[in-house]
Amino acid sequence: MMAFPALKRLWYRFRLRDPAYRHLLEPGPPDEVVSIDCETTGLDRKRDEIITIAAIKIRGDRILASQAYQVVVRPSVAIAPEAIKVHGLLEADVAHARPIHEVLPDLLHFIGGRPLVGYYIDFDAAMLNKHVRKFIGIGLPNPRIEVSGLYYNLKYGDAPPGTQVDLTFARILEDMKLPLFNQHDAFADALMTAMIYVGLKDLAARGVPIPRPRHKGVEATYGG
Question: What CATH code is carried by the domain that includes residue 43?
């Protein structure tokens, strides 16, 4: 079980084009993670592009929001009308921003080898990795932490069959008694995700489950 990460790390070292990014393959500072969120031109992982990125370091139970990384990115494709309705960003808002290949060096140095925390983190990682692979030869090697998974374990981990499951962002915030900021703004989403992570981590450490209502029927929902 321990050999696979070591072999994977060796493969990453072999594929890495630029030794300046070798720090991505080393563990980050102890007890530090990065909450990350991206807004995009749409939801097609192959066609669409990133237009904003926000990343916030978390050290222990401290959210270092004042040291956050935020950037607007000029995409190579048009922003879909449906996406504009979600995040409110127009073509004019990104027209003079830097392209993704100019943004990546700062972002990669900011996150380092820290685990990445997110809500639907696989989507954000996939959107980034389209460009990270071209830039350094490998995708982001950082471990990923999905907050909806942590939440599920604390609320539904021992649930009987037929339990209604709700993993929406708003439900998680409500159960954690956290405020809902301007959702679908990259910084606000990264900050709320960081707050969720810190709260869930504390509950898990104390062995405190999240209460759930007793409803019949099965309903799994996921999304912002």
Answer: 3.30.420.10
